[in-house]
């Protein structure tokens, strides 16, 4: 798995947006990663839809947008889109599809099923500039985990036990979306 983060900072609030880039082609993955970093995005780049789901299971709170190739072995970008939009914990994350094939039926299907944009490869800087309007702000997972720990520690022992039981139940529910138990904590606080 190729994973990297941008450490450059900007005075802009938006400099910390985290984009998950998914492409089986090393060349295309490096290109999109470079373009995203030029816009000061934090980037995690992976080579498959399955790796993307692993990242989402670990970093759901930190991912603000997914940009994925359409045609990949194993889980395609379209299948990744459907998984993300079909999971209650992920569906708010915007997904952008990229493809080297200009097929109107493919483009329409992706947009109808929840993709925010469909870019033709090679992706250009002007395409990446369009992403800013689709990014969502999520609290950092460290901040969310600290807030949750503080909330739970302030409860009575019986309430703490109930929280642990709810968390375990949430884990079972979230497994159907392919997420780790760490992400289930957000759903039990409601």
Structural summary, described in words:
This protein has a domain at 18-137: 3-Layer(aba) Sandwich (Rossmann fold), CATH 3.40.50.2300. It has 190 residues and is an alpha/beta fold. It is elongated and about 60 Å long. The protein has a 5-stranded parallel beta sheet, sandwiched between helices. The two termini are 34 Å apart. The chain has 8 helices and 5 strands; from the N terminus they run βαβαβαβαβαααα.
Brief summary:
By secondary structure, this protein is α/β, with parallel strands linked by helices. Helices cover 46% and strands 13% of the residues.
Distance between the termini: 34 Å
Discrete helix count: 8
Summed over residues and divided by their number, the pLDDT gives a mean of 77
SS class = alpha/beta
Superfamily (CATH H level) name of one domain:
Response regulator
CATH topology annotation of one domain = Rossmann fold
CATH architectural label of one domain: 3-Layer(aba) Sandwich
Shape: elongated
Low-confidence stretches: 1-15, 138-146, 180-190
Strand coverage percent: 5-15%
The description of the largest β-sheet is: 5 strands, parallel
Number of strands: 5
Quaternary organization? single chain
The radius of gyration computed from the alpha-carbon positions, rounded to a whole number of angstroms, is 18 Å
InterPro entries: ARR-like (IPR045279), CheY-like_superfamily (IPR011006), Sig_transdc_resp-reg_receiver (IPR001789)
Protein name: Response regulatory domain-containing protein
Keywords: Phosphoprotein, Transcription, Transcription regulation, Two-component regulatory system
GO biological process, one term: phosphorelay signal transduction system
């Amino acid at each position: 798995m190729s994973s990297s983060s941008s450490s450059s900072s900007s005075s802009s609030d938006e400099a910390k947006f985290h984009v998950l880039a998914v492409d089986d082609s090393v060349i295309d993955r490096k290109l999109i990663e470079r373009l995203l970093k030029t816009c000061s995005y934090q980037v995690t780049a992976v080579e498959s839809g399955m790796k993307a789901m692993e990242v989402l299971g670990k970093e759901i709170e930190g991912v603000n947008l997914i940009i994925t190739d359409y045609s990949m072995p194993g889980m395609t970008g379209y299948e990744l889109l459907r998984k993300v939009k079909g999971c209650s914990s992920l569906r708010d994350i915007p997904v952008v599809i990229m493809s080297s094939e200009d097929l109107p039926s493919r483009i329409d299907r992706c947009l109808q099923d929840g993709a925010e944009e469909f870019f033709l490869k090679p992706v250009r800087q002007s395409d990446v500039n369009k992403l800013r309007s689709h990014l969502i702000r999520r609290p950092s997972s460290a901040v969310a985990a600290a807030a949750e720990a503080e909330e739970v520690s302030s409860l009575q022992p019986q309430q703490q036990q109930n929280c642990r039981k709810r968390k375990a139940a949430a884990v079972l529910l979230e497994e159907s979306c392919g997420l780790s138990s760490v992400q289930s904590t957000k759903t039990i606080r409601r």
